Amino acid sequence: MSNTNSPYAALQYKQFVAFISGNCLITMAILIQEVVLGYSIYKMTHDPLALGFIGLAEALPYISLVLFGGHLADRMNKTVLMKLSLFVIIIASLILIWATARSTELSQNSLLMVVYAVIMLIGFSKGFYSPASNSLTPFLIPKNVLTNAATWKSSSWQTGAILGPALAGFLYAYLGLTITLWIVVALLVVVMILIGTIKSPQIPIEENRKLPILKSLREGIAFVFKTKIILYSITLDLFSVLFGGVMALLPVYSEDILHVGAQGLGILRASPSIGAGLTMLLLIYYPPIKNAWRNLLLAIAGFGIATLIFAISKNIWLSSITLFLTGAFDSVSVIIRSTIIYHFTPDEMRGRVSSVNGIFVSSSNELGAFESGVAAKLLGTIPSVLFGGAMTMLIVTITWLRSKEFFNLKIDK
Predict the structure, then answer these.
(1) Looking at residue 345, which CATH number applies to its domain?
(2) Does some domain include residue 1?
(3) pTM for this one?
(4) How far is CA 297 from the centre of its chain?
(5) Phi, psi for residue 410 in degrees, rounded to 5
(6) Which SS3 state, helix, strand or coil, does residue 410 take?
(7) Among 221, 196, 216, 197, which Cα is nearest to 205's?
(8) What are residue 290's DSSP bridge partners?
(9) Average pLDDT, whole number, for the chain?
(10) What is d(CA 7, CA 384) in angstroms, rounded to the nearest whole number?
């Protein structure tokens, strides 16, 4: 019999271990690709708006399709959907290799168009992959270890997010862009193999397959909007990261403000994930679900304060420390938000609720990257980050005043 009180309870389930291993590797692969492409584009254009368009190119197809992806995740074999989506991502990555290897033969505008088109294809694929992947966890482990599973799942993501950016800077510096992109493809193939070892669960309610698609989508959206604790938690994340996120501007900081180059960019990109990864290790032993809502608000406030300090830093080590803290605070909010969604969502709606959450997360990350690029273009890089940090603090304050009913929220493990 498994020990559900152990910090390692979720790791007793082999399919869950395969799942989070794949989660780690796909995160690493995508972030390596994102970092080296972003750095290459900024070196080529010296335009922060060009970086913003990377986020927009991924967000628009993702947001357009993720609700339908959630509908499919609740109706069909989740692992098959993941493998089909991953296959398209691999093809897209191969196209990137072809384009970047011929960068001297293509004009700058032509190369940018190919890169943006491929990123849109990846966003399209993630619109199907993410709901299937995010809704799979509760079917791989018992309900009484969901909080522990959420922590390990987030830890696997953070591990990939630590290794990916850190490796990206060094791989780019020593091996070049094309070989680095081949490494990305190899990692994605390993993910495909790991997914192949997971048996997809049966849909718990057979009638769910018979729902018309529009009714199915409306049902998922309506559930999120009537379940205030879910709506508030994902909305808070949306606006705080939308305004407070700085990741898209790190190539600008590394080149023009801190003057640390590609290796420095790798350090900056890895710092938030190192903070998150170390915090996740603590959260395995000390889950933040007692006084969950208060902890969520405090964590996002800490994220905002660290962002404000990062904005004005001119030293790479101070900048790295503040980014470390943003990752640490964000990891607390991720665990609490994931646990809330797992706890309050019925099995037959997990795909659709995951897709709605995915829209909010994508809006905060990818559209946040576009917002960062536009704001930096209009206001300047440092003022735009200061504005984002201030907006995060304002949002936390407003939410604190409007959500006191959740302050005593306790979630069972």
Answers:
(1) 1.20.1250.20
(2) no
(3) 0.68
(4) 19
(5) -130, 135
(6) strand
(7) 216
(8) 410
(9) 80
(10) 41
